[in-house]
Amino acid sequence: MIKNILFDVDGTIWDSTAVVAKAWVKAAAELGLPTEEISAERLKKEFGKTMQDIFESIFPAQTNSELFAKLQNLLYVYEHEFLEANEEDLTYPKMRETMERLSQEYNLYIVSNCQLGYIEQVCGKTGITELIKDFTCFGETQKPKNESIEILIDRNNLVKEECVYVGDIRGDEVSAHKAGIAFAHAKWGFGIAEEPEFVADLFETLPEVLKNA
To answer: What is the pTM of this model?
Structure first.
């Protein structure tokens, strides 16, 4: 029986790629890096990875760790600024209402490969802060997502058989299964899954999909 739902962020709760792409372009340009490959569509293919992996994918010719550190620091600043200034609704349809409904039956958590502060910003901008019991991210754990999931599970004394991870890409599925928990594919997001235990076409269908789990 599912009692705990762990959520991914990008491609699951909201789609911030158009806003974040602007931050990437600004930061890269300041450091003299090429910006031609940076777009919302490109970032949709990269989100879910750690920042280091995204950097190496977009700038394969760059191996300078100092340059990466500078880019990362600028990105944290500009992403926060652009997202705070953004007034468009970046969430998927019925996300807030569905999270409210789910919180009445399940414990809700967030685990992401993002930087420190990003989850807090997402929750604040979307109005779900009070619905989330706990969260963690790569910025806190410095571990791959499957290990971050396990850290959150251990910290909250959760039973793995009572947990499901909701994410949109194959990497989320692999991480959930490595952590020993079920996976629910958010088909509205950026990617695919191969062997999910659950599949939801729309955010609002999650309660029905998980009802008998």
So the answer is: 0.92
Task: Quickly count helices (H) and strands (E) in the chain.
Answer: 10, 6
Give SS3 for 137: strand
- Give the CA dihedral 61, 66, 68, 69, nearest 10 degrees: 180
Do residues 196 and 184 lie in contact, with contact meaning Cβ atoms separated by under 8 Å? yes
The pLDDT of residue 68: 85
For 115-146, what is each residue's pLDDT tens digit? 899 999 999 999 999 999 999 999 999 999 99
CA atoms within 13 A on the CB side of 153: 23
Compute how many other C-beta atoms are within 10 angstroms of the C-beta atom of residue 86.
15
Nearest partner of 199 among 174, 163, 162, 173, judged by Cα: 173
Ranges of the chain whose pLDDT falls below 70: none
d(CA 49, CA 59): 14
Q: Which two tokens stand for residue 44?
A: 């949709």
Residue/partner pairs of 38-41 with CB below 8 Å, 24 or more apart:
41/17
**DSSP character for 49?**
B
* Greatest pairwise CA separation for the chain in angstroms: 53
Residue 189: CA count within 13 A, CB half-sphere: 32
CA–CA separation, 196 vs 20, rounded Å? 29
Q: How much is the pLDDT for 42?
A: 93
Residue 199: phi and psi, rounded to 5, are -135, 130
Q: Residue 205: what residue type?
A: T
